[in-house]
Here is the input.
Amino acid sequence: MAGEPLAALGGKTTLEAAATPNMDALASMGVMGLAKMVPEGMKPGSDVANLAVLGYDPKRNYSGRSPLEALSVGVAMEPSDIIFRCNLVTLSEDEPYDRKTIIDHSSGEISSEDADILMDAIREAFNNEQFQFYSGTSYRHITVWKNGKVLDFEQPHDHLGEVIGPYLPKETVFREMMEKSFEILNNHPLNIQRAAEGKNKANSLWFWGAGTKPSLSDFEEKTGLKGTMISAVDLLKGIAVGAGMEVVCVEGATGSLHTNYEGKAAAAVKAVLKDGKDFVYVHVEAPDEMGHQGSITDKVQAIEYLDSRIIAPIKAAMDESGEEYRMLVLPDHPTPIRIRTHSSDPVPYVLYDSRRQSRKTAHYSEAEAAATGEYTADGYKLMERFLKG
Here is the structure.
């Protein structure tokens, strides 16, 4: 949810422009600062950044994004397997394949149900001893290349609105699968129906995010705490599976602007107050997705929903319980509207401890967090501070 000042908002960031009374209250009673979640030399992906937020040093623990997602969907991986993220994307239709434009990296945030129907057609065409395709959530899917090699492919959300030719894989087999996928998907009955309903077609595969089987230390062994992950996104669920944390799937949690915020908040409260968990990681994807879409209005709305429909009910329930607790609120990385993709800039955080409350007036934002002088250069160390108090 972090970003850059925008002229359309009078020089404010989306976080500054959003009405966030609950996060402001936490900032007024707690500590604000900046933390660099993406180490120098690493791409600012949600994989690297969320590992850091959870307290894992990305330089030591990162083996690629897609293998973490594969853990979430139950893909059995061998050490020699190479795992790719496989997006269902929307490309323009009339030009030769290499001259098409990438319109939408998420195919209009296609539902998992629709995506699985299209992935069935992909599996029928491409599954063999060398390649296997697995359905994930929404537009996010998995390809396993048996005895393959790690290849660095371009991220689709980095090239929205651009002609795809310069960004296509140089490896013939992947390029041919992408081209053939357009032939299979563009006139698939489901895509014809989606177009008639005014929705973006999910008309091509896009490979990226290669990696190998991950190995994370167990979160409970590492911290002494029983942990739960609440997210709609396979990447976060996969990180949790790799770390031995419980994964709670909330009905109606989609990773979109209109996800089940209340359900996530209720699941977090239940995990702590009824199920005996010590630590809960609540992940909300909407501000990131709205940043990718370049929608100022929707990104502000997503931040306000996070404040009122996640932060507020969780804090109220914890206060009412009488339990002592701490809350840490932060983005994993910025997704500025200007560039419509991730950046490596430090993120603002607020750390609140119910036992140690200051009294000041603060607005949770990038600028005010920077003004405190609190800075964590190795962002993964922020989690240790949070847990130890």
About this structure: The mean pLDDT is 95. Residues 296-321 form the longest helix (26 residues). The radius of gyration is 21 Å. The first strand starts at residue 31 and ends at 35.
